[in-house]
Specification:
The complex is a heterodimer of chains A (218) and B (198).
Chain A (H helix, E strand, L loop, with lengths): L1 H9 L1 H11 L35 H11 L1 H8 L1 H8 L4 H31 L2 E9 L2 E7 L8 H12 L3 E5 L5 E6 L3 H10 L12 E6 L7
Parallel strand pairs in A: 1-5
Antiparallel strand pairs in A: 1-2, 2-4, 3-4
Helix pairs in contact in A: 3-4, 4-5
Chain B lengths: L6 H4 E6 L2 H14 L4 H7 L6 E6 L4 H4 L9 E6 L2 E7 L4 E3 L1 H6 L6 E4 L1 H7 L5 E2 H5 L17 E6 L7 E5 L3 H7 L3 E8 L3 H4 L4
Parallel strand pairs in B: 6-8
Antiparallel strand pairs in B: 1-2, 2-3, 3-4, 4-5, 7-10, 8-9, 9-10
Classes of the chains: A alpha+beta (218), B alpha+beta (198).
Chain lengths: 218, 198
């Protein structure tokens, strides 16, 4: 069908005659919604790219921008771009700003480093707790340090082992996951395989602990 | 207002709003913002229910001093994305992300370049920053009254940097040229900004 129509459309006079005949009956166009403005956000600091210079990770932002949007990089950080940016700001204020940003950046970096170090040092404890002679519960503690959503992890365990699994507060007031049944080895395997939400937990930081019931407890 | 805010601890509850409440919000948005019905429909389709996220005050020690306590802040979210927020039953504010998409729904003021640094640290905007050469205030015939939500733009930047509430009318700002002119409500990089899903 369309192939037969196309050639006739390409003929210029036809189109011209068609247009005037169309115009009189056109109703006033319905009010169109305004189109949203697309804003490019920096992948590093999440701010709009033009605000990177005030963020705490300017160097990394610059690298990212240069790689992914070279034209914008040119616009913001080339010589003229820098000149244009100065605007009404005096030179000394500008240099002060730059110094400030550098300082802020160093600070943020140190902070991130410290956080990373702390993260790498933190331990995940899988504890097998004897509940009643041959019955156990397993508690997993310390997953939140590796940005694991505890609720989701608990759900994952519950699904995987078909047992009860919940997030509870231990006596110290920290959150931990309690799984019914002795599944400590399996959880260790899951962590080393990085199943689902357990991604990013280093296996070396996991320790298995056994907790026996005290004698004469019951 | 959102300098320190974390959804996991500060949110006390989420509810889907009644359709009658949604309708009243819709009409007050149309009255408050510079926006037409079609655009609003595009931002917030009629079929989509709005979720109200209530934020609570954590410690009692804050309530006494901090007038910008997180008490009675409601965030309105559409499918988990914060869209609007409100303090007590004051005016609605759009979130910055929404404002970036539709820049002209709020009136605009502009601060000079020297102020950006402080603005992005959450400071209130002083009058001289807006009356100086790099700044911008609406002309006298479009004077903004005190207590109007405004977007704060910055010299040499195309996108908004913050949302504020005028403390003085714009003409007063010109006259007095001293002290706080616009109170910053939400700014780029604050904790509301970092919440993309609630």
């Amino acid at each position: 069908m369309s192939s037969t129509v196309d050639p006739s459309n390409t003929v210029v006079p036809d189109v011209e005659t068609a247009v005037p005949s169309d115009t009189p009956p056109t109703p006033p166009p319905p009010p169109q919604p305004k189109q949203p403005v697309e804003v490019l956000y920096c992948a590093v600091c999440t701010l709009p790219t033009e605000y990177c210079e005030f963020g705490s990770s300017l160097t990394r932002c610059k690298e990212w921008l240069q790689k992914s949007h070279p034209d914008l990089y040119e616009q913001y950080y080339s010589e003229e771009g820098l000149q244009a940016k100065l605007g009404t700001l005096s030179l000394e204020a500008q240099s002060k700003l730059e110094k400030d940003v550098a300082k802020k950046e160093a600070k943020a970096e140190a902070k991130a480093d410290a956080a990373h170090k702390k993260k790498m040092e933190s331990q995940v404890t899988i504890k097998r707790i004897e509940r009643n002679k041959r019955k156990f519960v397993t508690s997993v503690h310390g997953l939140e340090a590796f940005n694991v959503d505890l609720k989701k992890a608990a759900k994952l365990f519950a699904q995987k082992f078909a047992t009860g699994s919940s997030v509870t507060k231990n006596p110290q007031g920290q959150d931990e996951i309690i799984v019914q049944g002795d599944v400590s080895e399996e959880i260790l395997d899951m962590i080393s395989d990085e199943v689902g939400v357990l991604k990013g937990v280093p296996e070396d930081n996991v320790q298995l602990v056994e907790e026996k019931k005290k004698k004469g407890g019951d | 207002m959102f300098k320190k805010f974390s959804p996991s601890t500060d949110v006390s509850g989420q509810t889907i709003l009644k359709s009658s409440v949604q309708r009243s919000i819709r009409s007050s948005l149309l009255a408050q913002f510079n926006i037409d019905a079609e655009t609003l429909e595009q931002i917030w389709p009629k079929k989509e229910p709005l979720t109200l996220v209530k934020c609570q005050e954590l410690g009692l020690h804050l309530t006494l001093v901090d007038e910008h306590s997180r008490e009675h802040i409601s965030i309105y979210a559409l499918q988990g994305e914060p869209l609007l927020f409100q303090h007590f039953d004051g005016p609605f504010y759009p979130t910055l992300r929404l404002l970036h998409k539709y820049p002209d729904i709020l009136p605009m003021v502009k601060v000079d370049r020297g102020a950006i640094r402080f603005l992005l640290a959450g400071a209130h905007m002083m009058c001289p920053g807006m009356t100086s050469a790099g700044g911008y205030l609406p002309p006298p015939e479009q004077e903004l009254k005190a207590g109007t939500p405004v977007t704060i733009h910055a010299e040499g930047k195309t996108h908004a940097a913050a949302i504020g509430l005028t403390k003085l009318s714009t003409e007063q700002m010109r006259k007095v040229n001293k002290g706080i002119g616009v109170e910053v409500v939400s700014y780029l990089g604050d904790d509301l900004w970092s919440v993309q899903k609630i």
